[in-house]
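Run log // design_07
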């Protein structure tokens, strides 16, 4: 592990999965050229092609770096892990809310009163403790891949970081600390935030875990204590919503005081954060609930009732707006979904285990975290609050449920639903802007040891050829030509997907070559200074499939100021799209994108129906690779 990622102690043996491969150099360079060709002008492409060819020439810089990467692969469990983690998360200076932390939005809950909401919170905390016991004991059933190349076992390491991780702000590169021996940490506590006040709720007292009635009674005490205006402390949680460098600087000021340092230490060692939110005052539409999870509505609402460095923050709004916000660096959205679904099943399926009050212990009230402030710190808090408000005002979110069809219709066309949706996203963007842009789709690498993700570059030449025919107003193309191009585009997308999930993606490889050149103190190779490389890493479309089996959905913000974040959740007969962008950018609009997406989805359906292939065409070679295996949970 690098200096920025500290694993305090290794967990039990991880499964023996293959190591992520290092793709052949020539293959990556050829794919790179193919990927960027539809995105840059001809003269720029020629220039880049010459640079790439020089880099990959026999005896060239590329060969030297490739050899070093292969050596690194031998020496490490996962050669790209640290490079990727720093590049994707720890070096990123943007604020965590909206820019980095994804959220799961739970179905709107109906609470009769505050007690009902706290009962829900107690039940959820009980579920968290049960799930944590499974991860601590490493007894979660192993997940198996579904969809493309179904059936292979997947790496489970990400689950073990759910409740054991903390991201420390640093001036240049944050530090992710993972306690792999969390089970031995005593006593365990959860941080509960209520009215911007922090409380440490010990969940193990005298070696015995609190039962649900005891948790509820502790939560009631917390609510009561938070109401005492005289004892109220400034909203320190705001600092964690700031840019990472700003928060790192503020933290240095804050920890000068021992009281603050102690409070921070308690937060940094907790199992998770539970945010008891005030009613947000907005209609609980999908979009508003997504916004509340992503940023809490700013200081005026629940924006300070958070601690963004902690990996799992459960939000329970007294108005029934609930969900989870995650610090993304320790794990992917898929793991967050599995945990959330376990908790929802726990809440719905297992009746609340409220034991009789007589069998509950009389416990000391939870400890309120104390903070010492001064005018300097007050100024820092105000500045963080202002910057959060700007982020809140800037986020343009549109949750769109497309109800005309879902995965089953697409499968009926003998196409991969994921590839199909990616092609539709390309069409939607093309409808808005008349061009394609560098696109990111996350591809899981969990088939490999400590695997995280690589990128499927969905703006393929085949997608461009298809969207051009669809947008051709002279109607010069026949349906059969359009349909052929649709199939070519989905096939190209599926091929790229299979390459990426088997470790043959190009983004991680190119990043590895760049990083290793730095380690060797070499001059930055020209290929990485080229404006094409920079543009190809500016992901105007940042997309991800995060499917759920229960009624809930994932959402996140754009990754660049002029971009869109599109998280989608394909179901059998409908698809949820969470489209985000920034109001401050006049080039983007989530509503305009959603309109184009809806049109594109309907136009392609009509095209498929007119082409009538489902009934007539033989089964395509890219049908599912086998009967999908059920995921472990
Ligand atoms: N004809 C008919 N059916 C097909 C088909 C075809 N040509 N191709 C695929 N299908 C079926 C699959 O068998 C599968 O069936 P199931 O629903 O019964 O399991 C279904 O369609 C879905 O497959 P597909 O749409 O191809 O996608 P996938 O499930 O393989 O997912 C990725 C593709 C890239 C999304 C996935 O590999 C991945 O990496 N997911 C992780 C993404 C991630 O990490 N997100 C979180 C980021 S924070």
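design_07 sequence
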């Amino acid at each position: 592990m690098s200096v920025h990622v500290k694993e305090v102690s290794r967990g039990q043996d991880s499964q023996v999965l293959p190591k992520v491969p290092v793709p052949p150099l020539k293959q990556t360079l050829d794919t790179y050229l193919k990927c960027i060709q539809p995105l840059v002008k001809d003269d720029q492409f020629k220039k880049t092609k010459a640079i790439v060819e020089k880099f990959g020439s026999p005896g060239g810089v590329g060969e030297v770096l490739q050899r070093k990467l292969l050596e690194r692969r031998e020496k490490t469990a996962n050669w790209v892990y640290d490079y990727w983690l720093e590049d994707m998360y720890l070096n990123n200076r943007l604020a965590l809310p909206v820019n980095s932390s994804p959220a799961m939005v739970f179905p709107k809950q109906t609470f009769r009163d505050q007690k009902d909401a706290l009962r829900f919170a107690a039940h959820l905390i009980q579920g968290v403790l049960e799930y944590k016991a499974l991860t601590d004991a490493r007894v979660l059933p192993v997940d198996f891949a579904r969809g493309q190349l179904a059936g292979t076992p997947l790496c489970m390491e990400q689950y073990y970081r759910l409740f054991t991780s903390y991201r420390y702000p640093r001036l240049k590169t944050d530090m992710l600390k993972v306690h792999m021996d969390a089970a031995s940490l005593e006593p365990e506590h959860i941080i509960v935030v209520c009215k911007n006040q922090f409380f440490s709720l010990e969940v193990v007292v005298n070696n015995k875990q609190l039962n649900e009635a005891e948790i509820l009674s502790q939560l009631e005490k917390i609510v009561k204590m938070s109401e005492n205006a005289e004892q109220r402390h400034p909203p320190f949680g705001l600092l964690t919503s700031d840019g990472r460098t700003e928060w790192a600087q503020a933290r240095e000021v804050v920890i000068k005081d021992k009281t603050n340092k102690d409070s921070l230490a308690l937060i940094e060692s907790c199992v998770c954060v539970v945010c008891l939110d005030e009613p947000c005052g907005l209609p609980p539409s999908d979009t508003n609930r997504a916004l509340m999870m992503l940023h809490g509505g700013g200081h005026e609402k629940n924006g300070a009732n958070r601690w963004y460095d902690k990996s799992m923050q459960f939000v329970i709004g007294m108005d029934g707006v609930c969900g989870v916000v995650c610090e993304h660096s320790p794990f992917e959205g898929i793991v967050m979904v599995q945990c959330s679904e376990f908790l929802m099943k726990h809440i719905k399926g297992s009746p609340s285990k409220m034991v009789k009050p007589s069998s509950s212990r009389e416990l000391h009230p939870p400890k309120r975290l104390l903070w010492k402030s001064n005018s300097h710190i007050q100024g820092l808090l105000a500045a963080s609050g202002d910057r959060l408000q700007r982020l809140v005002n800037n986020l343009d979110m549109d949750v769109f449920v497309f109800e005309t069809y879902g995965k089953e219709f697409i499968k009926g066309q003998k196409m991969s639903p994921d590839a199909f949706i990616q092609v539709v996203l390309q069409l939607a963007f093309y409808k808005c802007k008349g061009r394609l842009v560098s696109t990111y789709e996350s591809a899981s690498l969990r088939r490999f040891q400590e695997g995280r993700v690589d990128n499927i570059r969905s703006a393929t030449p085949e997608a461009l050829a298809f969207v051009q025919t669809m947008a051709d107003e002279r109607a010069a193309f026949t349906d059969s030509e359009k349909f052929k191009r649709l199939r070519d585009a989905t096939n190209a997308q599926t091929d790229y997907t299979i390459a990426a999930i088997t470790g043959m993606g190009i983004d991680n490889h190119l990043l590895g070559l760049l990083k290793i050149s730095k380690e060797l103190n070499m001059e930055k190779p020209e290929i990485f200074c080229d404006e094409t490389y920079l543009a190809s890493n500016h992901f105007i479309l940042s997309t991800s499939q995060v499917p759920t089996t229960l009624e809930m959905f994932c959402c996140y913000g754009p990754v660049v100021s002029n971009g869109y974040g599109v998280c989608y959740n394909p179901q059998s007969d409908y698809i949820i799209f969470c489209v985000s962008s920034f109001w401050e950018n006049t080039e983007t609009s989530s509503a305009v994108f959603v309109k184009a997406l809806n049109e594109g989805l309907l136009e392609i359906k009509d095209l498929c129906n007119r082409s009538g292939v489902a009934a007539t065409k033989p089964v395509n070679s890219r049908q599912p690779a086998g009967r999908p295996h059920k995921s472990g949970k």
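Residues 6-14, 614-633 have pLDDT under 50 and may be disordered.
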